[in-house]
Amino acid sequence: MAELVKVAVDAMGGDNAPVEIVKGAVEAVNESSHVKVFLVGGEEVVNTELAKYTYNKEQIEVVNASEVIATAEPPVMAIRKKKDSSLVKALYLVKDGTCDAYVSAGSTGATLVGGQLIVGRIRGVERPPLAPLIPTEKGCALLIDCGANVDARSSHLVQFAKMGSVYMEHVMGIKNPKVALVNIGAEEDKGNALVKETYPLLKNCPDINFVGNIEARDIPAGNADVIVCEAFVGNVILKMYEGVGGTLIKKVKAGMMTSLRSKIGAFLVKPALKETLKAFDLEQYGGAPMLGLNGLVVKTHGSSKAVEIKNSILQCITFTEQSINEKIKEKITMEES
Amino acid sequence: MAELVKVAVDAMGGDNAPVEIVKGAVEAVNESSHVKVFLVGGEEVVNTELAKYTYNKEQIEVVNASEVIATAEPPVMAIRKKKDSSLVKALYLVKDGTCDAYVSAGSTGATLVGGQLIVGRIRGVERPPLAPLIPTEKGCALLIDCGANVDARSSHLVQFAKMGSVYMEHVMGIKNPKVALVNIGAEEDKGNALVKETYPLLKNCPDINFVGNIEARDIPAGNADVIVCEAFVGNVILKMYEGVGGTLIKKVKAGMMTSLRSKIGAFLVKPALKETLKAFDLEQYGGAPMLGLNGLVVKTHGSSKAVEIKNSILQCITFTEQSINEKIKEKITMEES
Predict the structure, then answer these.
(1) Neighboring chain B residues of A192 at a CB cutoff of 8 Å
(2) What count of Cα atoms within 13 Å lies in the side-chain half-sphere of residue A253?
(3) Interface pTM (ipTM) of the complex?
């Protein structure tokens, strides 16, 4: 039997912790025999939750942590002070090699800071980006970076392109993934100082499939697989997905309730519509990996339910079994030589 | 009788020129006796189009222009070389005081460059922003800046906030409009160097109603009336509206066609849905004003039909009658003192 992939899960992070987190962990080990989950959190509450389920006891281990980091806490301070928090202890399990990966629905800031400070960067990686999958008409694309790395430099963006390509090719199975740079026009000479400097660097990168600039309008259409941008812009793109999507769905629902005729129609279209829109739901893709660290750090939505926790844990198996970090190391080193 | 508001319209600009542009001009003068339109373009083709309609001949004048600037042409070069183009001649009508305002569905780049080079900035205005109205759940908001001013400084953003406030209060009739700064978090200390520097400046601005940071997610919900950002981010926001909106509507339509049951439902909900979604259509609001110039420059969508041209022309009446530029001058000067 192959060695199990070991995942440290922050049992106390997120709006639905620990109930949904524990449930998701149980579902993950029941779905795959390749994984062992370390549930980090208040021993008593976690065990109470675990007692509700049937699962292979060898695949789940509880690690006690007496503190919890709240979403509103300043990240650096929280990481430094709360040494016995579930978030910090789970990250240390990756740092010391007990686990291969970490999953949390808790504080994004603390996860990003902790990922860098505790788990640490792969040698050569300048900045580890947070890279969520976003839905497109053709499937999904990797938006890299959405993290805390604002005011990025062009060399960072080149590394994002390389790391994103590795992820899309080996985790998502897209051969020779198309890499595009977010810009305000398609032409090479468009844009601000950062993208003007980055464009020729990406164009001359031999080991990625750079297809040029992409306007934000064409991202949801699925014209590229790896969407490269600095974190401020990435954050705006991700949140416009949520904002426009949410408002439009609300409008569609309200529109269907305006007359008796439309109400009957709504009743008839509802099941089909639900199915189609599910494919365009940001939350279906599980967590966003923070790439370029000595281990895998996955941040899932604060509102995650069991299914997202399960998917995030299962995603760690492919990542580890495909030796993504080894491949990232190779690509980054190639750049240096 | 009050003096007429005079609007120079680029009859040759946009995908549907000159047919829809001329039609829109006729519709505008037939709707309002307060406006005179100067249609700038090929005399012959414009007159042929005009011959199709009945309207008050004193309200439309044709100004011949033998050249046309294409969307793909490099803006600065086009403005310099094509002195007899409809776009350049129409801008000169504003420059020399013949007209109060300019409307074009033609090249955005050439309009932005021409607005600055030909019409010129109001004394004190550092950069004239392009500020489209975007739909929200509560009505609409002004997104300022979406123009060509990438790599903006904090002093520019403060001026955008002031000019946007004047526009929303006096053109859109929103009392004490709420001004928000686009950021990646709600807290004051979040963001990149530009927004961190801009936040305290806006906070200490006595003559605007600054409500703090806004995350992109909350823009479509209508949490603020004036959305301040630099042009790169503004462009991404505007185009994510188009991209996510377009893809979602496509998904909704496809979802409704998946079964016989849903097809019948679709037939029933269609009229109600169409009505509701119209209120969320970017194009309904007419053109985007370029603020801070010695005259009003309005850029409408390249795909504009007659109705948008008409709305853009009528928008110029309110702008001129409300002396928006005088009010902008006052607010900008106040800053300097």
Answers:
(1) 150-151, 232
(2) 8
(3) 0.86
Q: Which residues of chain B have pLDDT under 70?
A: 1-2, 148, 279, 283-284, 335-337
Cα separation values, A215 from A5, A168, B107, B247, Å: 39, 20, 17, 15
CA nearest to B320, candidates B171, B148, B159: B171
CA distances from B23 to B15, B44, B51, B57 (A): 14, 15, 11, 14
**Distance, in angstroms, between A164 CA and closest chain B CA?**
21
Q: pTM of the prediction? A: 0.89
Element housing A176 (H / E): none
Cross-strand bridge partners of residue B298: B103, B289
| Contact residues on chain B for A275, CB-CB shorter than 8 A | 255, 258
Identify whether the C-beta of residue B163 lies closer than 8 Å to the C-beta of residue B328: yes
Which pair of structure tokens corresponds to residue A14?
């997120």
**Residue contact A221–B259, C-beta within 8 A:** no
B272 and A256 within 8 Å at the Cβ level: the answer is: yes
The nearest CA of chain B is from the CA of A56 a distance in Å of: 40
CB atoms within 10 A of CB B221: 16
Q: Measured between alpha carbons, how far apart are the two ends of chain B, in Å? A: 38
Contact A232, B184 (CB under 8 A): yes
Residue of A nearest to B235 (CA): A184
Q: How far is residue B318's CA from residue A42's CA, in Å, rounded to a whole number?
A: 63
> What is the DSSP secondary-structure string of B228-276?
E--HHHHHHHHHHHHHHHHHHHHHHHHHHTSSHHHHHHHHHHHHHHHHH
> Residue B180: beta bridge partners?
B212, B227
Q: Which residues of A219-250 are buried (b: 16+ CB within 10 A; e: fewer)?
A: bbbbbbbbbbbbbbbbbbbbbbbbbbbebbbe
Identity of the residue in A243, A249, A270 whose CB atom sits nearest the CB atom of B218: A243
A99/A9 Cα distance (integer angstroms): 10
Gap between the Cα atoms of B268 and B256, Å rounded? 11
Best A107, A214, A253, A276 residue to mutate vs chain B (most B CBs within 10 Å): A276
CB contacts, 8 Å: A249 with chain B? 248
Give the confidence band of A2 by pLDDT, cuts at 50, 70, 90: low
Cβ-nearest to A217 among B239, B248, B254: B239
Contact B12, B104 (CB under 8 A): no
A145 vs B contacts (CB less than 8 Å)? none
Instruction: State how far the Cα of B136 lies from the Cα of B55, in Å rounded to an integer.
Output: 36
Q: How far is CA B210 from CA A228, B11, B206, B213, B334, in A?
A: 32, 40, 9, 9, 17
Instruction: Flag if B248 and A249 touch (Cβ within 8 Å).
Output: yes
Determine the Cα–Cα distance for residues B144 and B328; give it in Å rounded to an integer.
Answer: 15
| Res B283: pLDDT | 67
Question: What average pLDDT does range A236-256 have in this prediction?
Answer: 86
